[in-house]
Amino acid sequence: MRPVLIVIALAVCFVLWDRLQNEGRYTTRIEDSFRQAAADLPSGSYGHEVRFSRDLMKR
User: Which superkingdom is the protein from (predicted)?
Assistant: First the structure.
């Protein structure tokens, strides 16, 4: 349990440090990389999705 709390505390300290000292530059880059990775997924900007037939679900 202690290692989990240490990781959470480190993450909170990083975000606070970034917001106060760096005007959020590092967290903005991390968020942008997550957005770019999400856009690269098949269901992202390409319009491919997994769809289920409702008729099959009724059976």
Answer: Bacteria
